[in-house]
Amino acid sequence: MKVTEHIAKANGKTLFSFEIIPPKKGHNIQQLYDNIDPLMEFKPPFIDVTTSREEYIYIERNGLLDRKVTRMRPGTVGICASLRYKYNVDTIPHILCGGFSKEETEYVLVDCQYLGIDNLMALRGDAMKHQRFFEPTKGGHEYAVDLVKQIGDLNKGIYLHDLMETPTKADFCIGVAGYPEKHMESPSLPSDLKRLKEKVDAGANYVVTQMFFDNQKYFKFVKAAREMGITVPIIPGIKPLAVSKHLQILPHVFSLDIPQELIDSVSHCKDDKAVRALGIEWAIHQTKELLKAKVPVIHYYSMGKSDNIKSIAKQFF
Ligand code: FAD
């Protein structure tokens, strides 16, 4: 079922959802199930599965370093299929521009269609680790809006190369990313919102936001988006702070602000166990306010560990 249909069916009740990261190459899928199992009692209608960019690794051979490209966390679509059939839940693979030609993207989209996946999250992807800025893959898309258009074309029965007379139409519901504190490369929030509007005009059906720690940023973002004519659901993304190092890492990686009150509270924590408990408290406070504002869904970034998400979810869902 599509995300937009889940939202409509909920009839104003806020839904619970979360995002998981595939295990590292060579690890067992059981560790993923062990993290998901405790969250299933809160009945998520859908679960997102991220896709990681490919990266360079260096293998020593006869005293020389051989450079290879690999994807350290493969298996997004396979995991979506396994979760769908294990838990009877909708799963949403993240589809990236980076690392894929349009041809390879079409291949993945056809897989998703055959597997009965109804929703896709269309993203540009970050730069590779060694790159300062995102560089499009040869034969691939430069911006998420172009990927949205490719998926939209498939929904109209338009495949690459136009080979068939009566092609089957796909029927994907498309999610895209939004940034309450603007995307790190964007010159301004209004300019970034204009880009978001382009993705929605190209066929995106809903937006999931980057994490934020100050709900006011989300509320202002939604208001500005509505004023600009973006009418699709805007799902807030929440990540509980888990270690004190997050105060440096999260602003650096995601270009966001941490409220001073939260920074001050972290400085009074004696260890990371206390920071984790504080992160849960803060996310509970955020959740309470978002529920009061009747947001359609709250999307939690689990980052591979679910105990803190469970502590939050059991209070509300
Ligand atoms: P875009 O919408 O293409 O925007 C990228 C930048 O380009 C923005 O600054 C935008 O303002 C600008 N822009 C857009 N169109 C144009 C244009 N035509 N001309 C000039 N500038 C333009 N990353 C992963 O690698 N894997 C994941 O699984 C993943 N999941 C995510 C889930 C969510 C909910 C979010 C919020 C982010 C996720 N990301 C993921 C991170 C995301 O890939 C990065 O933030 C990436 O840098 C931008 O992706 P985007 O889809 O927002 O790009």
Overview of the structural elements:
There is one protein chain. This protein is α/β, with parallel strands linked by helices and 317 residues long. It has one domain (3-313): TIM Barrel (Alpha-Beta Barrel), CATH 3.20.20. Helices cover 40% and strands 18% of the residues. The protein is built from eleven helices and ten strands. It has helices spanning 3-10, 30-36, 76-87, 102-115, 144-155, 189-201, 215-227, 246-254, 260-267, 272-292, 307-316, and strands at residues 15-20, 46-49, 55-61, 64-70, 90-96, 119-123, 173-178, 206-211, 234-238, 297-301. Strands 1-2-5-6-7-8-9-10 form an eight-stranded parallel β-barrel, surrounded by five helices. A two-stranded antiparallel sheet has the order 3-4. The longest helix has 21 residues, at 272-292. The two termini are 20 Å apart. It binds flavin-adenine dinucleotide (FAD). Residues 50-51, 53, 94, 96, 123-126, 143-145, 177, 183, 185-186, 192, 195, 199, 208, 210, 237 line the site of flavin-adenine dinucleotide.
Helix content: 40-55%
CATH architecture: Alpha-Beta Barrel
The structural domain count equals 1
**Global mean pLDDT:** 96
Residue runs with pLDDT of under 50 for 5 or more positions: none
Give me the count of strands.
Answer: 10
* Terminal Cα span: 20 Å
Report strand order across the widest sheet: 1-2-5-6-7-8-9-10
* SSE-based structural type: alpha/beta
What compounds are bound to the protein? flavin-adenine dinucleotide
Number of helices: 11
